[in-house]
Design brief:
The structure holds 2 protein chains of 2 kinds. By secondary structure, chain A is mainly alpha-helical. Chain A is built from 9 helices and no strands. The radius of gyration of chain A is 21 Å and the shape is elongated. By secondary structure, chain B is α/β, with parallel strands linked by helices. Chain B is globular, with a radius of gyration of 18 Å. Classes of the chains: A mainly alpha, B alpha/beta. At the A-B interface, helix 5 of A face strand 6 and helix 4 of B.
Chain lengths: ~260, ~280
């Protein structure tokens, strides 16, 4: 068998396994038992745990966006509308994508490493032997927490980004705060907010399910865990960017 | 080979009283082109210990994973506690697993939980029993394996032997009638290995638990086969099995996916088969 056909076979198998996992998650979400305590623990781990990194990312992104936009807008004598660019870019695009990427780096890798270690040390097999479904116990709490917390983190990131933009506008671009805020609100339409909220729900779900899938498929001892962690981050990051493009296209058709 | 008495009454463990608690009928399994088990048949009778011997890669651990439903056989029939399990769904298997306790190689303890939480896991998470009652049971099984003072330790703070004994305690908590041990003494020093062997013997002789031990440690396998546990007052002692007492332990030797031998310790020692003699030497 050629290397290409082996690679293709492997890719189809991974996709099939991922779809099976999604099916199990779907069934697990609508039937008992639900491990509420684990969901709360994961809400804390994913949400509160990622807060610092998301705050810093949002702040610096908003600040650099204001700086760069200011330079470009100067060419048209339109420096005063910098707020519009910052808010539209943050809410529709950079907030959701950068938050999802940062959460992937912090949480997606952690999930793959944790589940991968449990697989190679037989802890997943032990769970099943003790009558616990690992998807319900380990995957569903993470998926619920990721899908809920990434949108909330995105809203926080968007807000901090706009505040960062305000600081730069006032201190560096000499645009009055009131002018900046007026532009921020005028530059945003309801459709933009919808886009900014739908995206992180999908991206949060994708990054956690990919982390869980890759972790649960880990094999080959500690080396395998390392490979799984790297694969989870790379796959989820690419998937986030690809899904963001497809979602943007879809939402433009549906909302605008 | 015995006829599998449970086949006609599958699904009814009560109707199976006295029959085998585990039965394999012509079970085969292959991973891609590699044949792991080829038409394996054997039975485990209640209260007996079956030691599965074999070189690395002979399919020993696979047998345990098939019994637990962690793997699915390609062909053949498997019965556990009166239920046919080879074609059972994962959901239905959860009920069968309540009859089974498994001691994994290296213990497979949950790193993030204390010894107490590990041992009581099944009862804390998967039952409605009151917490106080579960705590009592956890103390009881930890006392049984001699680790009552280690309840609040983390698994990383335990030695290899202590981890295996905690794993045995965890498997025991919900009072399963069948215990499966995967290489319980591999990697342990001879003295520590003996303490694990003694636990296996105690469960067989004092609790009447049916068990399968997968190992390639001949010393431990023969120790379990030739010793028995007896109670003297509150103490438990271990002594050589008297010649007149029927052994409760049988051996099954696997070689490249086939059964190379099945019988008692004495029959195994007396075998003239070259491979067996080489393996035992």
């Amino acid at each position: 068998m050629s290397r290409l056909s082996i690679w293709l076979k492997q890719a189809v198998l991974e996709l099939q396994e991922y779809c099976l996992l999604l099916g199990q998650i779907g069934r697990g979400l609508v039937s008992r038992p639900i491990y509420t305590r684990d969901i709360i623990e994961q809400l804390d781990a994913i949400g509160i745990g990622s807060l610092t990194v998301v705050l810093l990312t949002g702040l610096f992104t908003g600040m650099v966006l204001a700086l760069q936009s200011g330079l470009t807008l100067d060419q048209f004598g339109a420096r005063s509308v910098v707020g519009r660019l910052v808010s539209a870019s943050m809410v529709k695009e950079l907030g959701p994508v950068l938050t999802a990427l940062m959460v992937t780096g912090r949480v997606g890798s952690g999930i793959a490493a944790e589940l991968g270690s449990m697989v190679v040390t037989d802890q997943i097999a032990a769970l099943r032997a003790l009558g616990t479904d690992p998807v319900r116990k380990l995957v569903i709490p993470r998926v619920v927490a990721g899908t809920l917390m990434v949108p909330i983190l995105t809203i926080i990131s968007d807000s901090v980004g706009m505040i960062g933009g305000l600081v730069i506008s006032v201190t560096q671009l000499q645009v009055a705060g009131s002018v900046y805020w007026t532009n921020v609100t005028e530059g945003l339409y309801l459709n933009d907010l919808w886009m900014g909220l739908v995206k992180p729900v999908v991206l949060g779900f994708a990054l956690v399910t990919i982390g869980c899938h890759v972790g649960l498929r880990a094999k080959g001892g500690t080396q395998g865990v390392g490979r799984a962690t790297t694969n989870a981050v790379v796959t989820a990051s690419v998937a986030i960017l690809a899904a963001d493009f497809l979602l943007t296209k879809l939402l433009i058709v549906l909302l605008y | 080979m015995d006829t599998v008495a449970i086949s006609p009454v599958e699904g009814s463990s009560e109707a199976n009283a006295g029959g085998p608690v585990i039965a394999f009928e012509d079970v085969s399994l292959a991973f891609d082109d590699k044949v792991v088990l080829d038409r394996i048949s054997f039975t485990l009778r209640p209260g007996r210990l079956k030691v599965i011997l074999g070189a690395s890669g002979s399919g020993k651990s696979t047998v345990l994973r098939l019994i637990l439903g962690l793997l699915k056989a390609d062909a053949g029939r498997i019965f556990v506690a009166g239920h046919r399990v080879d074609d059972m769904s994962e959901g239905d298997f959860m009920a069968v697993r309540s009859h089974l306790g498994m001691v994994f190689q290296e213990g497979a303890l949950f790193d993030s939980l204390t010894v107490r939480e590990n041992v009581g896991y099944r009862l804390y998470e998967e039952s409605d029993r009151p917490l106080a009652e579960v705590d009592v049971r956890v103390r009881e099984v930890l006392g049984f394996v001699g680790l009552a003072d280690f309840a609040e330790r983390m698994p990383s703070e335990l030695s290899g032997g202590q981890r295996r004994r905690v794993a045995i305690a965890r498997a025991l908590t919900s009072r399963p009638r069948i215990l499966l041990y995967d290489e319980p003494t591999t990697g342990l020093d001879p003295i520590t290995a003996l303490t694990v062997d003694d636990e296996v013997i105690k469960l067989r002789d004092l609790e009447g638990v049916s068990s399968i031990v997968v190992t390639h440690q001949l010393r431990d396998a023969f120790y379990m086969a030739t010793h028995r546990a007896v109670t003297k007052g509150a103490d438990v002692t271990f002594e050589s099995l008297p010649a007149e007492e029927a052994p409760k332990t049988e051996f099954l030797m696997l070689r490249q996916g086939h059964v190379a031998f099945e019988g008692t310790a004495a029959e195994l020692r007396g075998s003239m088969d070259r491979y067996l003699q080489e393996f035992l030497s």
